[in-house]
Amino acid sequence: MKKVMILGAGLLQSYVIKRAKDLGYETIVLDMDENAIGRKYADKFIPINIVDKEECLEVAQENNIDGVLTAATDYGVITSAYIANKMGLPGLDVSVAAIIKNKYDVRRILYENGADDTNQFFEITDINDVDEVCKEAIFPLIVKPCDGSGSKGVCKVNSKDELKLAIKDALEVSLSKKALAETFIVGNEYGVESFVHNNEIHILGIMKKEMTKPPFYAELGHCIPSKLPNNIEKKVKEVAEKAIKSLGINFGAVNMDLLITSDGKVCIVDIGARMGGNLIGSHIIPLSSGIDYMGNIIKCAVGDNPDFQRKYDKPIATRLLALTPGEIIEVPDFSKYNCMDNLEVVCKLKEGDVINKYKNNLDGCGYVVAKGDGIDECIKMAEKAKNDIDREIKRK
């Protein structure tokens, strides 16, 4: 039985842990949260901060693992690459992982290689740098922490004063204390999920995204197919492949967010060298294509053969449970939704929990997944279930 180390044991990683178990692998799971939901599915659980690459490497060597991976979180990307490189296991080159972790470095490399249509960007490490930036910047701008995820610290700004406030917020949530300001692009947002194996890039899916309104930008859901015209989908695939090659991504899952303008420009807004979150790997890709995305991630990590052959094309829509704020006194019976063949609700809310105002993915309370004969039907079904749940929750 091969041993696979999985970095992270939250809700989204728990699906990967369970899939590894289903495939017959022994799972060694690391997460600093001793109460992480994925702990109960692991063969061995060790409470360690997955950002601490040396301590994680020591555990990997002690357990003589056959592969290492992380999924749906950026925090374990460098550590998993570091362990794989040190132990001679399949994995992303650690120098590439370090680049991907820095949004400014990614933007610079994409610009130098003409990978997309974005052309204005600034790295800011000190609030006092704003004055110099404003001498060149054309507003509006979008500000984000250089190493952030889950839309934390992301904000649109229209003036110098707003820029200062946004930079302050972005620097506070950035581990590296660096922020990126770049052109604010008016367009519709899409996600692209890819996988690199044996120097071949597999585009697994292009998804239309539903987003919150300004000034915060957070995901509210996905749908596939994207409903993009064929020529634009072709350009999206070309941009994704060029970006992956420009950045030197040599192995594994790649999650990419981009904006498409009304005149057909494609602008990359974020890239992660790992499986996407918000049920992309566990539900959206496998349900829409028949590709065992999580299984392929696990198999590639331990050197086994993956299968990227599409089995079918089916419409899928998801919605995050971005709900009305308040303290919960009663929750609905979620099982009634999961009794339906075309609907699934993932929600762990309980009496006494507090729902926060939805500003980023961490404020979400769960997910709705809808299947159907057409994408518009799926979207309506997911929206209705989300709104019904919101209405049925009783708050103080």
Q: Any chance you could write out the topology, listing elements then pairs?
A:
Layout: E1 3-7, H1 11-22, E2 26-30, E3 44-46, H2 53-62, E4 67-70, H3 77-87, H4 94-101, H5 103-112, E5 121-124, H6 130-136, E6 141-145, E7 155-157, H7 160-173, E8 179-183, E9 188-197, E10 200-211, E11 219-224, H8 230-247, E12 252-260, E13 266-272, H9 280-289, H10 293-301, E14 316-320, E15 326-330, H11 335-338, E16 343-347, E17 354-355, E18 366-371, H12 375-392, E19 394-395
Describe the 3D structure:
The structure is a single chain. By secondary structure, the chain is an alpha+beta fold. The protein folds into four domains: 3-97, Rossmann fold (3-Layer(aba) Sandwich); 119-183, 2-Layer Sandwich (Dna Ligase, domain 1); 186-301, D-amino Acid Aminotransferase, Chain A, domain 1, CATH 3.30.470.20; 316-395. It contains twelve helices and 19 strands. It has an eight-stranded antiparallel beta sheet, with helices on both faces. The chain has a four-stranded parallel beta sheet with strand order 3-2-1-4. Strand 1 (3-7), helix 1 (11-22) and strand 2 form a beta-alpha-beta unit. Helix 2 packs across helix 3 (77-87) and helix 3 packs antiparallel against helix 4 (94-101). The chain is globular and about 60 Å long.
